[in-house]
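tool=predict chain=A
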Amino acid sequence: MVSPPRFLWGIVFFGYSLSLSESQHNHYGSRPNIVYVLVDDLGWGNVGFNRADKSTNLEVHTPNLDALATEEGRVLERHYVHPMCTPTRCALYSGRIPQHVGTSLEHPCTNPGIPEQMTTIATKLRKRGYSTHFVGKWDAGMKTPNHIPLGRGFNSALSYFEHGNWMYSFSTWEGSYNRASEIPKCKPEKGCFTDLWYNDGPATELSESGIYEETLFVNRVKETIYNHSAVNNNLPPNRQLPLFLVYATRIAHYPLQPLPEYEVRFSHIEHPHRRAYTAMISHLDDIVGDIATSLKATGLWENTLFVLSSDNGGFVKAA
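tool=predict ok
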C-alpha cells in the first residue's frame, strides 16, 4: 500500500469537516498532527520545483522544499489566495472567503480582522482535543483580547500583530523600503510600537534580546514540537493529544533583512532587493528542513500533515 503524502504545497481545507459532536468521536489517539507553515510573500517561481531549469539557476536554491514537494508530498496547484496579507490570513483561520471576512489591509489596532462572532479553525480543533499553538505573524486583528491568537482558539502564541516589523528591533515596519536599517525611526507618538507578544502580553525580554526575529520563531516552533512529544510520551496511546501548530513566518515580507551568512551566498545578484529576497527564501528552505527534522526526531512525522503555502505572490520590488 502506498502511504499518503505527509507534505502538501498549497492550501488544504483540512479543519472544517470536524462536525461530529463530542460524544460521537474519540478525541485521542487517532487524529493526525497538523503543522501549517504560512509563508509571507513567497512567489510561485521562488522555489526550485516550480523552475523549468534547476541545474543552471543561480538564484533559487530550495533543496529541502524541493525534496519534500516531489519525494514525500504533493503539490496542490489549484488553490487561490488574496493579493494581500490580512484577507488571506483571515480567510484561512475562519474558513470563509475574503469577501465574507474582510478584504482590507488596515492597521490591526483599528481593523478587527476576523469578526468576533466567527469561529476559527483553532477553536474547532481545540474543541476536538487538539493542542493548538501559533508562532509568527498574526495580522488578523488585535482590536480586543478576543481578536488575538489566544482569543481565537490557540493555547499559546509567540507572535507579532502588524503587517511587518524589523528583524532585530521588533518595531513596526512603518513602510520604509530602506532594508539596511530602521528608517524611519520608531516614533510611538505616530503609532509605532514594539510588536512582539507572548500569549496576551508584551514579550519584553525577547524583544530586547537583539536576537534575529525568525530565529526566535523557529526556536519556539521546535520547542513546541519537542514539548508536545514529551507530554505525549507520558500518556497512554489512547490519551495522546494531536498537535495543531501554525508557523506564520515573516519571510519574505518587507523590510528585507536577511542574515549575512545567507546574503553572502547570493553576492552575484546585483539588485540589492532581489539579493536580499533570494537570501531570505534560502533561509526559509533551511527552516522548513529543520522543522521536518524535528518532527522526524520526535516520532511525530509519521502522523503529521505538514502543509506549506504562501499568503500571496512574491515581492514585486525584488522582481
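The chain has a mean pLDDT of 84. The two ends are 44 Å apart (CA to CA).
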